[in-house]
Design a protein that fits this description.
The structure is a homodimer. By secondary structure, chain A is α/β, with parallel strands linked by helices. In chain A, 39% of the residues lie in helices and 21% in strands. The first copy, chain A, is built from 9 helices and 10 strands. The N and C termini of chain A lie far apart (41 Å). The relative contact order of chain A is 0.13.
Chain lengths: 282, 282
């Protein structure tokens, strides 16, 4: 099957009609700038499913005003080349008004999950992401969604939405891909200065250190958070947005950490917002 | 094909797997108490599609506290008998926790349509209905949705949601079925006392009178609304919730009525809330 670039919803329908028969379809959504993090998702999807569809769409409604969406880099031609070489079957790269025509007005909210953590600082982000995913599910009709663990809150919200709204989709979460330094791969890393990169490396260092403390018997989330703050303070360009230790399923904040907890960090590094997380399991 | 009663989501999946092959599936959602209004929808669906699925579910999240949901009548056995005799292929009658398990938290909002008219008095009603319909769409996977025109706002909101979220479903709207007196059929009519029924008949009388005035050249929506109020004032048990003349597609309130307008009324008749509407077309 040759690599197809689809831009209209009708073209996705036709592609699916042609290829669907009992084949397992997987979706990987990206905002473009395909990097090793995306490639890890794509490779797993290619291994495990029959038809792999990648979407590239800069989801304008999940950005707030403090982010310069216009600076978000676009490299569609480079991305196409990478996807084709990887063996992706179709790229869905819709225009803005294909997804959000004038007078667009339907949104998905996930109560209690969208309004904590990143939802406080970036209220649009969570509802914007669920809304786009609902649309992509209805357009691409995938059986599997491959999603990285880097944005852990997003992963949990999408799982909850799929469950609540009865989408017949299995979520396959894939471990965060990291630089040798531990820094989680992200398109945003390209915004960082050399000094900021050094500081950004502290996020994962802080998470690992807290996990070590937990393994040694420190269960107080306040003390673990203090330890993380101390590590992050070493980074002069870092400003903490939040550090939270939450239940891995409900995202409820905890007083006492357990193996079922997750530590989630959001930090400004200069003007770039970075996120990372670690499970206390294992 | 024999009549099936399905209560679990899995049983709907199995039913569909067995019968789906290229067949046109239609959905008619009700809260039970099947009456001639529902029957008109069902008969059209049977005529026009291959598999007709009726859902019965009292959608608790679209009731507000002022309504006594416990008084909402249930006649499931009677309904089953009627549906079977009509030739309906399956009834989906889920339990409350099949649709809304504990910790349920995903909702669909339709901005600008859910927060006007009935959305002001009954804020839960509109979001509750879109959320249920989204779930039913994902469970039943219908090609066609048959919906009455009595709740005109609901009809417009569902059309907008289907369009915005890319559900591949065609809405077939069916004219409101009325008593000889003009009263729109509704389960709620059974709550009315003989005196209240006489007053309730004024709703359609007022709508028709306003339409007559419009045809004679009265385009001022203020004057048309005044005329409706005057008619409704004849009913001692009536209390107007709202009278609105709106664009038939956007539900925006208008100063000047046109053939593309709709008049929508919501009225308390004693303690029972009744709605009705009329198109100014034709």
């Amino acid at each position: 099957m040759s690599f197809k670039v689809l831009t209209s919803i009708k073209s996705v329908d036709n592609f699916l009609l042609e290829h669907r028969n009992n084949k397992k379809i997987s979706l990987i959504h990206t905002m473009g700038n395909i990097h090793e993090g995306h490639i890890a998702l794509i490779k797993r999807a290619i291994k495990e499913t029959d038809i792999v569809i990648v979407s590239i769409f800069i989801n304008i409604i999940q950005f707030d005003k403090t982010e310069d969406i216009n600076n978000y880099p676009e490299n569609l031609n480079k991305d196409k080349k990478i996807l084709k070489e990887l063996g992706v079957h179709a790229l869905f790269a819709p225009k803005l008004d294909t997804i959000y025509p004038q007078n667009y007005s339907s949104y998905i909210i996930v109560d209690g999950l969208s309004d904590v953590l990143c939802g406080i600082t970036k209220p649009l982000q969570c509802n914007g992401f669920t809304t786009l995913m609902c649309k992509l599910f209805n357009i691409v009709k995938p059986h599997y969604l491959y999603l990285g663990e880097k944005d852990y809150q997003q992963l949990i919200i999408i799982k909850k939405m799929i469950d609540d709204l009865e989408f017949n989709i299995t979520v396959k979460s894939v471990q965060t891909v990291r630089e040798k330094s531990g820094l989680a791969l992200s398109t945003r890393n390209s915004f960082l200065s050399p000094r900021e990169i050094i500081d950004a490396n502290l996020l994962y260092k802080a998470l690992k250190h807290a996990k070590d403390l937990f393994k040694k018997g420190e269960y107080s989330t306040n003390k673990l958070i203090n330890a993380i703050e101390n590590t992050l303070h070493e980074g002069v360009t870092l400003q903490v947005d939040y550090i939270a230790i939450v239940d891995s399923d409900t995202l409820n904040k905890l007083m006492t950490a357990t193996k079922g907890s997750h530590i989630i960090i959001a930090c400004y590094c200069g003007s770039t917002r970075l996120i990372d997380n670690i499970s206390l399991k294992g």
